[in-house]
Amino acid sequence: MPKVDITVEVCGMAGDGTIAAGGLVNEAMSLGGFSVLGFDSYPAEIRGFGRCVTRSRIGSNEIGALADETHILISLDDLQSRSRVPFLARDSAVLFDSKPDTLLEEEQSLAAVVEPGTALFGIPFTYLATAATGTSRGRNLAALGGFAALFGVQPEWFRRVITRKFQSKGEKVLEVNLKSFDAGFHYALEKFADRLRPSFAAANVVAGPEKVMLSGNQAIGQAALDAGLKLYFGYPITPATPIMEFLAKYLPAKGGRVVQMEDEIASVGAVLGAFYAGARAMTATSGPGFALMTELITHGVMAEIPAVILNAQRGGPSTGLPTKTEQSDLHAAVFGGPGDSSRIVIAPSNVAECYSFTVQSFQLAEKYQTPVIVLTDFYLDNRVENVVMPVASEKEKTDGNLYPDESLQGSYHRYLDTESGVSPRSLPGMEGFAYVATGLEHTERAQPDYTPEIHTKMTGKRHRKLQYALEDLPVPVEYSDGGQLDVGIIGWGSTFGSIQEAVNMARERGWKVAALKITSIFPYHEKEIRSFMTKCREILITELNYEGQLANLIGHLHRKEVVRLNQVTGVPFSPSAIFSKIEALLQAGVS
Amino acid sequence: MKTAATSLAEQIRHIKEAKKFDIRSGALPTWCPGCGYFGIHQGLNACIQELGLAHHEVVTVSGIGCAGRYPFFTSNYGLHTVHGRTLPVAQGVKLANPDLTVYAVGGDGDGLAIGGGHFPHAARRNVNINYLMFDNSIYGLTKGQPSPSSPVGMKSKASPFGTLDKPLNATLMALTYGASFVARLFAGDPKGITEALIEGTQHEGFAFFHIYSTCLTFDKAYKTWAHLKQWVHPIPEDHDPADLRRAFDLVLGDDFSTGIIYRRE
Amino acid sequence: MTARHVVIIGNGPAANEAAISLRTQAPDARITIISKEPIRYYKPHLLPDLIAGKVSEQDLYVNPLEFYKENDIRLRLGQEVVHVSFATNEVVMEHKEVVRFDGLIIATGGKPRIPEPLQVFEDLMLSLKTLSDAKVWKERLRWVDSVLIVGGDLTSLSFTKAVLSLGKKVYFILHGDSFWPVRFNEELSSEVSQRLSDRGVEVISCRKILRLVMASEDSVEVETDGRKLRVGAIGAFFGLVPDVKFLARSGLAIERGIVVDEFLRTRFEGVYAAGDCAQVYHPKLRDYWVSIGYRNARNLGRVAALNLLGGQESAETAPAGIFQLDDISVNTSWWTEF
């Protein structure tokens, strides 16, 4: 059966129902059993009106990244969609409203600028929706009807997801949407009978277990709920705000609370206070907010208080590029702040890991009594993937705290210097175990002490904990067929999807190329990384930053200088850019 | 902790039996002999004893400064945080475990300068914590720089020609921010502190205690014991703390009357 | 005149020749080709060869799409013009877009002509004008053994050859005076008839087709005034009529084509017509003629472009007058009905 790998875009003005239509494409194709990875973009500046674009990559195989080109453009607004023409693949198809309400000038028309190799399908969305329902509101659905007819998508998939989406909004609304869809479907089926391109039908994909469309941010929010989050403290910042909004909606019903704080310092401060008192709490922020948090994060390190802090990276430094993606907070996450204050930093690379890592972060924070930073990025937070709804096991949710033995009542050493560096931690309310958690250097009994012996001993204890934490941290994942390799690519975060695709492209050509995904940024699995590096002639570290922050961290593990591929365009790596670099490295190796 | 009357007696008996009446820890306070903060310590200690609060269910949260050291001198749970962040951390503790009684303590620099942004929000959020601001109008721990409540013209090593900035009035600010309980107190009057703290601790909501103190090491001119004793006086007996307008009038007209200025149930 | 935006409607030989001539002569002009067929420019006279399997679809195409990009010619495929306003110099597209032009060349070619008495049977007859027509034939010929050709025109002869080469039985009803645009005289008619018979075609002489009925999925029953037969498919070959319906209320004079003078000018300034859709005045004949055929069309396209840019070339200077088809000489460059 032919493999399908098709990118569909919906483009329109705010108010056209663009995002809704794109969401329905994702849902319907997911229902049909395809892998779906979607990403929406809409105006960063709040103008209330502007271009909205949804991109959905739909495949019969697993998908790790967005593709470079678009194969099907569904235009709900000619003028806005003109900007998408350069991204169209050579044999792409464009669906557009062939009977808009008003005449268009050539300068506004999409048909005027599409390349001649692009198949144009003019479908009177507005007219069809209005004729079928008396209102043009369903014109985006008429467009989806046309899409389904032209490309061999079972209309039943769409009808089901439309019903799911609109049935709560009343019969009338649902009817408008279903009828508009059908009108577009039947029109296109007849009108373009000799030009149908039933690519999706030809893929014969069989639907597996039911999947849901989840964004990185939703997965994080859901994970926090499932992990028994009690308190969320936050301050609005792009792109982390949706996590706060998600939890504001769902956390109260679970007995928790979302408190919007006055700034990020207060947010992380309250998180530390809550964990100190034994409750699971978290905050999510982005670069500028994370920078504000650094002092208190180091306080968590020093006073050994757990915390879960999500940093949804965006372009920086300073306010930077709030709606663009980047991986340039790695240094800040691992080392940011005064003193020797490294802490646990984990970075999911896809939506499923957004869920599992968030669940795990609470236990890690409790067990190792230190802040855990979950590093995501704009692209990972906002993209949607269809995944089997993740569920956290009881084991994953268990309290990770180590409490003092009752026999120690009265002679409790809060910061007992154990072999692992982890000392039993009491919670306020436990009689006979009161202590003062302090950001001053302190003795095992939590008394301030600046003597050389104490600072040396306690600094060692705090860092030893992190090495012990390695056994609980997600290990690097190797994508290789074994054997000696010419190029090994190491990556992290959302970039890894692009790396995987590039590696697949290279392997199809028979090249000896593999990839290693690093999810525990700090501490990192030195042994595993080194053993991968040993197999590779060249190590390429690919990341969305200028300074090569992961390369700076682990590059020294390789016997020779690692090769870096960095990009600061604000957009994810295209797999082909990585592929080109592999090609160049291989050629350099031959000569 | 708000305790029903019946169990209160029971708890007091329990604590007496456990000989944990005194919250003072074995650690000797690092404060200078004669510091006003001893009076505050004494006042809070007596309040906890009066209320019969179990020590392990009390948390004192502090920032940085002479006042920041306070938790070390108690036998409660303590959280000695970073400079200026006392209030957010204290709210986190209380929201995490409402059974705890939380005292946030800090100086005028900690609460009005570096941490000044948290004060209005703690007040309007009205989380049930007690905030004790030790106001000696000076940075004592760093050896005598002017603070946000120092008078205009105060001379110090950092302001050899006198300060220019106007002082902040923490009591007035608390009223403006919508705090539901506001008291102004004097470190030289531990009994008055205890009375107000007992009221405030039992108040459901954010309780603010503005406590005038002295720094006898670095302030030889302004808030000296002599001056404070001369200036401070109780609020008029007919003052109605439920009346916000009168509270404002009182504070605007008189910087040194002490007692419970405002209380909103 | 210096044309800023020249719009060419049509994408056949005349249109493409016009576009490239314009580009050569006026490097700065903006040139747009608008074509309702969603495919690029191909050689229509090779369609019978495609059906015969002698050439592939790729062989039909003239220019790759890059050619248009390199020459800065905006090619708009699958987009239909529904109206032209000469008062405002605007072309209105079916999808409700208005395109302004400074110069316009109409080169939409022709569409199959079905004589009026046969129009009732249109659904049962296939024609051969476009690539998609050819594809339909190609598919149909996989299943049927016999074809009846009605009418007769230049295409019908090469088509007949193609069908015969596939080993199919061909019937031919030479529809007397329907050999459009050429009027057959007795001599020519019998010569054609004889030649067809020599090749194994069964020529049926009749005056009238009485009945066409769909007999099964792949057969049609034909009844003429003298005969009944069953064939796999029927092809109608009655020449072309200009494809200019969109100009119906535009104010342009249209007879057997858009009426233009010897310089291919219409009555509106800057508006020209070329190729199969034009009806051209011939000063020597003192009459109009209609061109058919690939070479004629290209020539007219070139002439229209040059004249639009201020030239004074006469269309009659280079008429490819005589077609040689299967040893039959046909003069196509004049219009006999006039």
CATH H-tier superfamily of chain B: Thiamin diphosphate (ThDP)-binding fold, Pyr/PP domains
Distance between the termini of chain A: 40 Å
The CATH topology of the largest domain in chain A corresponds to: Pyruvate-ferredoxin Oxidoreductase, domain 3
* Gross morphology of chain B: globular
Please indicate the count of domains of chain A. 4
* Secondary-structure element pattern of chain B, one letter each: HHEEHEHHEEEHEHEHEHE
Assign an overall shape of chain A: globular
> What is the average per-residue confidence, as pLDDT of chain A, rounded to a whole number?
95
Estimated share of beta-strand residues of chain A: 15-25%
Structure description:
The complex is a heterotrimer of chains A (about 600), B (about 260) and C (about 350). Helix content of chain A is about 40%, strand content about 20%. With about 600 residues, chain A is α/β, with parallel strands linked by helices. Chain A folds into four domains: about 5-210, 3-Layer(aba) Sandwich (Pyruvate-ferredoxin Oxidoreductase, domain 3), CATH 3.40.920.10; about 215-395, 3-Layer(aba) Sandwich (Rossmann fold); about 405-470, no CATH class; about 475-590, Rossmann fold. In chain A, the strands form three sheets. Chain A has an eight-stranded mixed beta sheet. The longest helix of chain A has 21 residues, at about 170-190. With about 260 residues, chain B is α/β, with parallel strands linked by helices. Chain B has a single domain (about 5-265), classed as Thiamin diphosphate (ThDP)-binding fold, Pyr/PP domains (Rossmann fold, 3-Layer(aba) Sandwich), CATH 3.40.50.970. Chain C is α/β, with parallel strands linked by helices. Chain C has two domains: about 5-45 and about 60-110 and about 240-330, FAD/NAD(P)-binding domain, CATH 3.50.50; about 115-240, FAD/NAD(P)-binding domain, CATH 3.50.50.60. Chains in contact: A-B, A-C. The interface of A and B includes residues 271 and 438 of A. Strand 16 (about 435-440) of chain A pairs parallel with strand 2 (about 75-80) of chain B, so a sheet runs across the interface. Chain B: This is 2-oxoacid:ferredoxin oxidoreductase subunit beta.
